[in-house]
């Protein structure tokens, strides 16, 4: 069955790998991007997830192009690292606005279509940092942890309508964003990782597409770690 899929931040890294995985399965895939040139092969929609009107307009465009959104993947995110002692309110709130409130805006926009269809998949890309914390990332960790509580609450609100809401929690994954990590920090993370290697965007995408499939219909409010064994016991 071909489904209408929408992925925020689907123009690179983990988001692009997720988009490619859904497209390979035969789904109609729309991706949002904020800047740059989107990759070919998908329905691209320029969208700023910090702006409610922009999010609503993006969902309307996707609905007109490929039908109501049936699978939503909230992946768009930013980092703005710094020690809390010197972090401004603006630096903290900017990360929350994109990584957490952006997911809320997107979810709210796609909910009516899913409720009407009495079926849907809501998937949120969090981070291992949500549970472990990281120096200089109080804003990022707070936002990614917030996604867990948000998804579990949405799951309870929408479960009777056959709509699931789940969270994928990547560990260290080789992307453009993680290239900014220092060698020392990378080595420290790997010592805490059972598989002693970084993951790939494709491995995260496999977890996302599983949660979106019919075989995962009894899985909701779940947190699925894709961490290579890092954070065991949390």
Automatic annotation (TrEMBL):
Alphabetically ordered keywords of this record: Oxidoreductase
Source superkingdom: Bacteria
A single MF term (Gene Ontology): oxidoreductase activity
KW Cytoplasm (keyword) present: no
SMART domains per UniProt: PKS_KR
Keyword Chaperone in record: no
PROSITE patterns per record: ADH_SHORT
Family statement drawn from the similarity comment of this UniProt entry: Belongs to the short-chain dehydrogenases/reductases (SDR) family.
Name listed for the protein in its UniProt record: Beta-ketoacyl-ACP reductase
